[in-house]
Design brief:
Length: 771
């Protein structure tokens, strides 16, 4: 396994050679549009620079290409900073930076080290010219070497650095921590980019964060494994969680939830005003499968086999033909769809841009750093049934300077973007070629000045204005003030609630719902709002406030918007009331048979209650199992009662071979002592596709179960006789440990000496003692 500080780059060499394409003069490069002649002249000028000159900070902007309507400026660079891994921007507009000079000393023994440890810096532009004038050391120590996350929350700072998460508190405002606490410890992946990542503050007043598949577990400061809100130990051992995870918790660490699992390296999560969670994820190197995810609560995201933990290359029924989809088990029931495949790359930091300074195409969208492709880009999202679809829009690209390695992006209080650039010829193999360079860029329509007004959020009216700010640190302070004021803040929040901006309205609603004695009234207003995003926000807020959701779920179960109904389905995940079955059946009856997002939401809602929920659905009219909607619900079901229905679907003479493969795979997800007896019935099937039905049954069935073996033997012999010389023949001889087919294995070995089929036959022949 390759490991590195930055997320792994797919389909690239460990170290990248920079490619000089063309360039422009420093001043003209800051312009968003140029004539062809201007570009050619600038490119020619840049091409004449030496390699060493191109690496200098004074030429940094010339190596970049910026989207129309935007400009980019160099806010800070070496020697002021070096090797930035993560940033945050506080309410004063200052940029906080995690540096990583003490990175992998055992793998980089010749690299310089800071004996005092890596630094957390505060960069400040004192004169408003858009350039940092000072770099103040907030904290330095070996405990934060190569830290991968920082979040500034008022006078508190959360630093993520496996094996620990630290909470620093500056009680006297001197920009030095007066208290250092451990929030979590014994997290796996020390000095590994697949470990613990940054925290952000959500619109609901909760913290969201992630770790990649090296994180492995969460333990509290005393070394005790965290038990989440659903009673599960937070470990990646498959009971029930696997690999990388997304978390939500209260600010004090209580009420921790695992919102999604089975990612590879979900570098960071970001949350929009409605409480929807988004993130990127990295594939295994070289498989064109990096992805962007909408995080559906409690979802499994398919990096490994949900049931067994096997890797994505392991053979399985109904295996996807395209490697990117195979990589994430997209054909498996229970694997959440990917929002967007982004090919090869090295995905890193992400934010939701909810400001209005940038062009409209980037507003209310994800902004993401793709270090492997030398680009910061946006993914404009549109709704698609109960889910979403997205496209790609570049913002700034290292087209000329491919040492540009953007690793994090944050929104400043004025609505501009700050981007951290690790700056290195490569991102792989845990090697750092450039030892101390690094840049912080600022992106805005105009970058000539950077002035942040002093904020005073001490009144409800001022705090409500602060809640509108695009900067998370500002919104945090505003949220805490408004929440502390309780009913006193109601008039200011109501004014925001009645605005025309749905994101402002959502932010107000999260707080209005918390006002004692009045919250339920506002949430009810929200659930009757004409905007489905507001209805979703209100319902989510009600769930988090531990309101009895059954009446609310009944109210929204027949909402005309599939995304609202999706939220109702997800909410049933934790419902123990018998009334949940009828609500779920109503939701299932509205499934169109095509919307995979909706189907997976139904699956999450029915988790642990499938017997009752499936019965309620069938009783309500879902008994036409050959319809697309019923067939897919049966495929998704984790119920013993689904087994005979799966058999019926396979035996249906109009079923295609591909559909049958899908139904066969579903057997792997049902735990039942009757599974093999149900499969054995398929050995009596007669009709179209009979041979395929028999072969797939032989693959799936356990022949050692009493009453099964006698039915398997004659069919097995018939299939082997008809498929000699094939991969199926080799697979079945291997599965059933047959000893009397050595001659045929030898024939295959000799006939296909240079193919995987011949190798498989040879290995099987050797293992069986044949010659």
């Amino acid at each position: 396994m390759r490991i590195c500080l930055l997320p792994h780059v797919t389909s690239r060499a460990t170290l990248f050679c920079f490619t000089i394409i063309a360039n422009c003069l420093l001043l003209s490069c800051n312009q968003s549009t140029k004539t062809v002649d201007e570009k050619e002249n600038a490119d020619s000028t840049y091409a004449k620079l030496t390699d060493a000159e191109k690496r200098m900070p004074e030429h940094a902007i010339e190596g970049l290409e910026i989207a129309e309507g935007l400009n980019v400026s160099l806010f800070a660079s070496e020697p002021m900073i070096g090797n930035p891994t993560n940033i945050d921007v506080d309410a004063r507009g200052r940029v906080w930076v995690c540096e990583a000079l003490n990175y992998r000393p055992t793998l980089n023994p010749n690299n310089p080290q800071r004996d005092a440890g890596d630094r957390i810096l505060i960069l400040e532009d004192n004169d408003g010219d858009g350039k940092a004038d000072t770099a103040k050391v907030f904290y330095q120590g070996n405990g934060v070497n190569a830290a991968l996350g920082i979040a500034v929350l008022g006078n508190k700072v959360i630093v993520s650095c496996s094996p620990n998460v630290f909470l620093f508190t500056d009680t006297d405002g001197d920009d030095k921590p007066d208290k250092k606490e451990v929030l979590f410890t014994h997290i796996g992946g020390e000095q590994h980019d697949h470990a613990i990542h940054s925290f952000i503050y959500g619109p609901d007043g909760r913290l969201y964060f992630t770790f990649g598949n090296e994180g492995q577990q969460l333990q509290d400061k005393n070394g005790k494994v965290i038990i989440d809100k659903n009673g599960n130990a937070v470990t990646g051992k498959g009971n029930p969680y696997r690999q990388g995870m997304v978390f939500r918790m209260n600010e004090d660490g209580s009420g921790l939830e695992v919102l999604g699992n089975n990612f590879r390296n979900n570098y960071e999560a970001t949350v929009d005003a409605f409480g929807t969670v988004w993130q990127s994820d990295n594939d295994d190197d070289g498989n064109q499968g990096t992805r962007i995810n909408y995080v559906m609560e409690y979802g499994n995201y398919g990096y490994t086999d949900e049931m067994t933990g096997a890797g994505w290359r392991a053979k399985r029924m109904n295996m996807e033909s395209e490697i990117p989809k195979r990589h994430w088990h997209q054909n498996d029931p229970g694997s959440i769809p990917n929002l967007l495949f982004t090919g090869a790359g090295s995905p890193a930091g992400i934010c939701i841009y909810e400001g209005d300074l940038l062009p409209a195409v980037f507003q209310n969208q994800m902004i993401h750093c793709e270090a492997g492709n030398n680009v910061v880009r946006s993914y404009p999202v549109v709704k698609d049934g109960a889910g979403y679809k997205a496209s790609i829009r570049p913002i700034v690209t290292g087209k000329r300077d491919q040492w540009f390695r953007p690793v994090d992006v944050c929104t400043a209080p004025d609505g501009s973007l700050f981007v951290a650039d690790w700056y290195d010829p490569g991102v792989g193999g845990h090697q750092m070629v450039d030892l101390n360079r690094g840049r912080i860029y600022r992106i805005a329509p105009s970058v000539k000045e950077y002035k942040i007004s002093n904020i005073n959020l001490n009144t409800a009216e001022a705090a409500a204005e602060g809640l509108k700010n695009p900067n998370l640190a500002t919104r945090y302070i505003a949220w805490k003030k408004l929440d502390s004021l309780g009913a006193t803040a109601e008039p200011a929040l109501v004014k925001l609630w009645r605005s025309d901006n749905p994101r402002f309205r959502a932010r107000a609603l999260w707080l209005l719902g918390r006002i004692t004695g009045k919250g339920q009234s506002y949430l009810q207003q929200g659930m009757q709002d004409k905007n489905p995003d507001i209805r979703i926000t209100a319902f989510r807020a009600a769930r988090q406030l531990q309101t009895d959701i059954i009446p609310l779920a009944e109210q929204l179960a027949k909402d005309n918007d599939p995304q609202v109904r999706r939220e109702v389905a997800l909410a049933l995940h934790n419902v123990k009331s018998p009334a949940g079955a009828d609500i779920w059946a109503d939701l299932a009856m509205q499934y169109d048979g095509n919307d995979r997002w909706y189907l997976e939401a139904l699956g999450i809602g029915a988790d642990g209650k499938w017997d009752a929920y499936l019965k309620a659905y069938i009783d309500k009219g879902g008994h036409e199992i050959n319809s697309a909607s019923a067939a897919n619900i049966i495929w998704r079901a984790r119920s013993e009662s689904a087994l005979p229905l799966l058999v019926q679907l396979i035996e249906n003479k109009s079923s295609t071979d591909s559909a049958r493969l899908k139904y066969f795979r579903a057997f792997d997800f049902v735990k039942s002592s009757r599974k093999n007896l149900m499969l054995a019935k398929l050995l009596d099937y007669e009709g179209p596709g009979q041979e395929n039905v028999y072969v797939n049954t032989l693959y799936q069935i356990n022949p050692d179960e009493p009453g099964v073996s006698a039915r398997v033997k004659p069919v097995l012999k018939k299939i082997l006789d008809s498929l000699k010389g094939s991969q199926v023949f080799v697979d079945l001889v291997n599965k059933y440990k047959l000893k009397n087919y050595n001659q045929e294995l030898l024939n295959i070995t000799l006939a296909y000496p240079d193919s995987s089929l011949g190798w498989a036959a040879a290995n099987l022949l050797i293992s069986s003692g044949g010659t």
